[in-house]
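One such shown below:

_____
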Amino acid sequence: MFHQYTYTFPDHYFPDHYREGFCVFMEISSTVGYDSRAVLIHGQRTLLLSGAIHYARSTPAMWPELMRQSKEAGLNTIETYVFWNLHERERGVFDFSERLDLFRFCEVAEQYGLYVILRIGPYVCAEINYGGLPTWLRDVPDMAIRTYNQPFMREKERWVRFLVDYMRPLLAPNGGPIILAQLENEYENIANRYGADGQHYLRWVSELGQSLNLGIPLVMCEGATAGAIETMNGYYAHSMLEQHTFQHPDQPALWTENWTGWYDTYGYPHHIRTPQDVAYAVARFVAAGGTGVNYYMWHGGTNFGREAMYLQTTSYDFNAPLDEFGQPTTKLRHLAHLHQILTDYAELLLTNERAQPQSLGEMQVAYTYASEHYTLTFLCNDAPLPTNCTWNEEQVSLPAHSVLLLVNGRLAFNTSDIATTHVVQRDAQPLEQLISEVVWSAEPLPSAWPTALRSIVTADKPREQLALTHDNTDYCWYSITFSTLADEEGILSLIGFADVAHIFIDGQFYATTPTPLIENRGSFDGSAFTQSFSLSLAAGEHELTILSCAMGLIKGDWMINANMVQERKGLWGHARWNSTVLEGPWSMQPGLVGEQTAFFAAGGALVDWQLASVEAFEKPLRWWRLTFERPQTAGPYAVDLGSMQKGMAWLNGRCIGRYWLAAATGEHESWQKNIIFAQGTDDPTQRYYHLPYEWLQDKNTLVLFEELGGDPTSVSICTVPETEIN
């Protein structure tokens, strides 16, 4: 069966600033469709080799080089999610500027001859704050997210229609690069939770998609309804092909997310996946009949500002083929060789129907695609050990978990063999004597705030943090007075709390939340939302002050076993000293003085900064300002925060993200065994933080809000060059 999409659009769909060149769009318009074998562009089956690059996780100056390297590595498509939470931080106020210029990002891809897959969502997961949904949805009455709920569907439809109209000039029928669009994302993860209402909602999503009149096919990964191509996610997709073909005999096999590594969370080791395993997965999928692969991530980039999900590091490197800074890795060079062969023989692959497997052993198979002039054979070993087999009456050695690609019987590529010339190694190198000044200012406890800045809320019970901050800050203070009858050691317990608590007693720092925290915490009534601290207190009255620090919002329901609208931060339960519940009143103050007065930007000019001294080191609640000249050494650049502990960082007024030097002591996920490997155990999960080149000036200001205490004089600016391999 052949599916073709075309579209005739009214003139008003083009934003005014894109009307110029309208005829160009029309002259190069194309039809996009699909059959059971592949996506069709201009009626021709097309092998899609795609890479995920998220525009918001890089900067516009990086985009041309990211696209150029992607094209040179053999990709023909770029995939990106669309981040509703970043474009509409405030309801009705839209931002498509700078790194949020999605239109320009797609145009740059087109300039380098790349198609675009637009994953609209607007729920996207993606390890981004609230899964890509704006947090103001929580304040909409009667809201329930991602189920058949009128308030949610109304807001979602409003946003999706606005976005589609804005991007319509770049859809393929209108001459643009966008060939596929996705609505919703991985619904199977929550389908059981919402049952019939969930399926009703999915059908509504499909109807919404059809009503948009995009003129290109819709896709839905991991759970789709009629009218959309169902696609696959995972480390390996060849094992899903048989079921996919049975369920969707008229659809091509498209792999939306081939996970090139895994994301990192604070307190856990860095995750890596070998280049050999990624190449094996791709070759194995194409051998069995797959004709569309998207690497997730191809370039992960950086979670700037407060944009990372709960516990996710500021780095979103993902062990991707293009690293966090946009530089090529061993993985990229190894995959580029595979892409060259697949592209050279794409016509051979696509002209033929899916090859039938020929058994070579218990876990070894061969697939052959042949024409009058060429044969392309995939010899596949799915076993974890090497083996020998017979092919064309010759003995062939197959490495463990590998695919050998033979062209006319001769070896063209071995997924397990990395050429010496493809190996890349990089290490951060400090740039000596670059920082010229280090000064500091204190962040006061709420009792010492200037009256004009106070917005203290008083209540008998503590109030959940997001109800006070609306996620406009990570920070919220909780204060209460209580008494002890005698000098005693005891346990302070916070029952119903998230995420990180810094404990102050009578103005002195006493304790902080131990690490590692748990990513998927379960029920709000469970142990993951209880924290305890051992304290020694003198007899008398004490003021307990808690600085609650949010670490990003969840990305999906399963992380809290509740609808996303119920996400919570701070203290909503109660505090207990030993067995005694501390009775109110509670005083609550959202934010920091330094945030409200912008110590990190223009407000810093009004601060009475003090010169760095030993007495200020290792003290909590310090704002540090470091100045440095523009580096003269070639980039990319990062700041080494190995001497600090936890806080936020700004470069020339722009927030580069949260930092946390939590040791990577958490245990590895068992389900990823033999696929994902831990690196840097016991070291900080993230030590180096990206300083984008285009954010630098001739004289630069780096501001750190340090929550716990550190030595900023040991902070250094680094370059991250390719180094020689001995």
Residues 191-211 form the longest helix (21 residues). The mean pLDDT is 94. The longest strand covers residues 488-498. The two ends are 56 Å apart (CA to CA).
